[in-house]
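Protein folding task:
====================
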Amino acid sequence: MKIALFGATGRVGGEVLKRALAEGHEVTVLVRSIEKLAPRGRLTVIQGDVRDADTVTLAIAGMDVVFSALGTDKTTTLTEAVPHMIKAMKDEGINRIVTIGTAGILQSKIDPQKLRYEAGDTNRRLTFAAEEHHKVYDMLRQSGLDWTIVCPTYLPDGVAVGNYRTERNLLPEDGKQIAVGDTASFAYGELLQGDNIGFRVGISY
């Protein structure tokens, strides 16, 4: 399989990259700094800005699926990049995309008509990241693509141990955290298997 991977130098994206290469897939990544990731074997590295439509198109051209582990980093990079991904995918006839979101955009259990960050399910006062991911959720569900958004709660470093829980559109009951390794493991599996197309998936221990 040929995978376009965005956010490959981040924590989750880096783990997904390792898994994909270990299983023999061809991966093309887009990075801002070429020093962060050297091309090797089945890995193609493109240097550029994910906010640039032409560069995103170049990264996606000829791929089978798209994976985005882009975060917000207190900028609008995420919401600037995703429209380019969607357009490039449509132009290339690619349907499958998995992204990493946040538990804040899952449905609230306090007020099911709202998302968690809107209804106050979380204690976080700063909602910028959730608002950005909410915009991406809206973009994807209107795109007509086969999308899945994996929505981890508190995300400490840690290897995959496998004893996590997932739930469509909701955070599993009393879910407090999920390690980077298990988030990457589930999201990578979802990219290959497509068990939750058209859903946000909450994941936690």
Observations:
- The first strand starts at residue 2 and ends at 6.
- The chain has a mean pLDDT of 96.
- Residues 2-203 form a domain with the Rossmann fold fold (CATH 3.40.50.720).
- The helical segments are 11-22, 53-60, 77-92, 116-119, 128-141, 180-193.
